[in-house]
Amino acid sequence: MKRHLLGPLSAALLGSMPLTAQAQVGPIATWDSVGRILQAPAVETGGYHRYNFPRRDITLKVGDVTVAPALALGAWAGFSGELADATMMGDLVVTAPELGPVLSELANQRIDVTAIHNHLAGEEPRITYVHFHAQGGAMDLATRLDRVLARTTTPRPVTAGSPAPVTMDTAAVFGTLGLSGRAQGNVAQVSTVLVSAPVTMHGRALTPALA
């Protein structure tokens, strides 16, 4: 009588496989998965995962001066923590017609508004900056933020443009400020943490560069 050893052999092989291999049944969530939802590539910076949404659809002027997009039109979202339990913070750049729908959708998506303010005076078109905060699973947070971004004409998917050649004296700027930074075109940018003590929000430590 022939014996069929396939069943026991298969079971033996499965039992000898690493648990990690057995667990890989479906697609594994990564920070790139968050980027696919937000339609923007992830940028690792300052200990958190950042997704930029430049408002390249807006030509911004103050009087006769055209304001460089990198200076005033950079919307973004940052995530810290783990994929299963993340903190999301960021800044949306919205036009006057977009402000009401964006605020309504933020409320609908249970995303807290932490600030509404202006960076410029006398600009055309009028621009408002909306800071936001939420906690939860990163994929869920990204899905909710995606619905908010859909209330704007923010260009997505975000594509990486060619970096503009630097046309300013960055050594003078950074040297005067005593800070290092980055530059692109005619814009130099520096970042500094103003509060050195640990900061918590809802019992959770905040990443200094994010908050």
Task: Please provide a written account of the structure.
The strands form 4 sheets. The chain has a 6-stranded antiparallel sheet. Strands 4-3-8 form a 3-stranded antiparallel sheet, with no helix packed on it. The chain has a two-stranded antiparallel ribbon with strand order 10-11. Helices cover 29% and strands 31% of the residues. The N terminus is likely disordered. Helix 3 packs parallel to helix 6 and helix 5 packs antiparallel against helix 6. It has 2 domains: 135 residues, no CATH class; 42 residues, no CATH class. It has 7 helices and 13 strands. By secondary structure, the protein is α+β, with helices and mostly antiparallel strands.
How would you briefly describe this protein structure?
It is built from seven helices and 13 strands. By secondary structure, it is α+β, with helices and mostly antiparallel strands.
Layout of secondary structure:
Blueprint: H1 6-16, H2 19-23, H3 31-38, E1 42-45, E2 48-54, E3 61-62, E4 65-66, H4 69-72, E5 74-82, E6 85-95, H5 96-108, E7 112-117, E8 123-124, E9 127-136, H6 138-149, H7 170-177, E10 181-184, E11 187-190, E12 200-201, E13 204-205
Antiparallel strand pairs: 1-2, 2-5, 3-4, 3-8, 5-6, 6-9, 7-9, 10-11, 12-13
Helix pairs in contact: 3-6, 5-6
